[in-house]
Amino acid sequence: MSGELSAFGALVDGLRRTLDVHLAEKANPPKVKRSRKPRFQLSVSRLPEILREQLPDWAELVLITGRENGRDVRWIGDADRSAAMIWSSFEDDALELLEHAGEHPNTADIALRIAGDLAGEPIPAWEYVTVDLNLPITSVQLFDGWQLASINRAEDPSLPISYGGFLGDLWTPDLLHDRGFGALRRPSSARRLDEAAAGENDLIWPLLTLNLLDIPPVRAFTAYLVEPGRRVLCPAGGLREGYLPSEVKQWHPQPLTILPRKPHILDQAIANRLGRYAAEMGSCLAALSVGDRRVLARATEHHLYLAYHEGPKQPKLDGSYAAFRHTVTLEALLASADSDHEGIGRKISQRAAVLAGQDDNSRLAVRDIIKSAYSARSAFAHGSGRTRQVDHALLTSTVKIIMRRWLALAASHGAKRVAALLDDALLSTTVRDGLMHEIAEHESRAGIQ
């Protein structure tokens, strides 16, 4: 062991030399003597053997460094007994990282990652949630610590060295990411997403933000913990496998059964301005009071329910029932707090028209689509057996606009004031112009075209 380097430095240096020798031999493989006897030989790298040559005291270095860093190094044990297992793990990790490092791998960086995984200081975990969305860039900062990541192994050194070792179903993280699924991620909090009680909201906000874009529904599935740049973490006594966030179960009782074969690929132009949009949405969410966030959460539950129940892997929702869910979403946001429930459909239609329309014609169109949704809702509620025809694509896009604009106004005026302001805007062009100016500024900051 070198006297000039710390134990960890010596470990990194020895791993780097090992990788350099491996790459040199790969570029100029030694000649093999020909034999007349045919033989079967597995293609196995010489990495473990090179490690023994370049760093014969690797186990001692790992043991010293691991103890210094407070790591559990009981797995080292007798170096001779555990050598095969450790060398195999080193070989798998090294080959995995070299595969994703391009034509000119930085062996010093790779050696540092492997040494850190073996015996480095513990790194606070991040929580990942798989989503059926593929991002054409490495990652985007959202808000409250959340990021949207593409799981790009070549570009993102914070990802695990390997996703290998999972057992079981088709929704394990390694298989999902091999198929191009991205992830929402954030530094792990004291409470994992599968430990949230009813009424506790975390995942709902970044998921709502993505679902108010003009793209197909974005759903969350498997979650898991990652020590950045190293490993997927195992629960105590368990396997490295995912878990289902508690909030997801409110939107679908068996969400893993609706996992699509491949994710939606986010348009490059939308991806480029996603950070700007998310920052504005996060700012609006942060401005809401606790009560106003509960109002928005109630509306969002219905919106995400529809997102999880529409798609090729599910029975088609009855059109009247889908309209019912949409109208309940709008009522959560736009129904006034007073006791006057007369003509609620008319009031909601008018308020929605003011909020989502740009001119007289578009306001009338919004009113008409909301009225048709209420007609379908009535057919569903009274069990007539007839499904009223509604343009569900138009209704969905209209509801998205209303939710997004409601959030902007509620952030400025409070949720209780929004309905009254929209009523005033029916009679006062001054009020209406003021609200439209606020919305225009919000959409400009968000980069919404």
Radius of gyration using CA atoms only: 28 Å
- Put simply, the count of helices is 17
User: What's the main sheet like?
Assistant: 6 strands, antiparallel
Average pLDDT confidence is 85
- Terminal Cα span: 62 Å
Beta-strand percentage range: 5-15%
Topology order in helix (H) and strand (E) letters? HHHHHEEEEHEHEEHEHHHHHHHHH
Helical fraction equals: 40-55%
What ranges have pLDDT less than 50 throughout 5 or more consecutive residues?
A: none
Shape assignment: elongated
Number of strands: 8
Strands side by side in the biggest sheet = 3-4-5-1-6-7
- Structural class, by secondary structure, is alpha+beta
Outline of the structure:
This protein has helices at about 5-25, 45-55, 60-70, 80-100, 105-120, 175-180, 205-210, 250, 270, 275-285, 290-310, 320-335, 345-355, 360-380, 390-415, 415-425, 430-445; strands at about 125-130, 135, 140, 145-150, 180-185, 220-225, 230, 265.
Set out the fold topology.
Blueprint: H1 7-27, H2 47-54, H3 58-68, H4 79-99, H5 107-119, E1 126-131, E2 133-134, E3 139-141, E4 147-149, H6 173-178, E5 182-187, H7 204-211, E6 220-227, E7 231-232, H8 248-251, E8 264-265, H9 268-272, H10 274-287, H11 290-308, H12 319-334, H13 344-356, H14 360-381, H15 392-413, H16 415-427, H17 429-446
Parallel strand pairs: 2-8
Antiparallel strand pairs: 1-5, 1-6, 3-4, 4-5, 6-7
Helix pairs in contact: 1-2, 1-3, 1-5, 4-5, 7-10, 7-11, 10-15, 10-17, 11-12, 12-14, 12-15, 13-14, 13-16, 15-16, 16-17
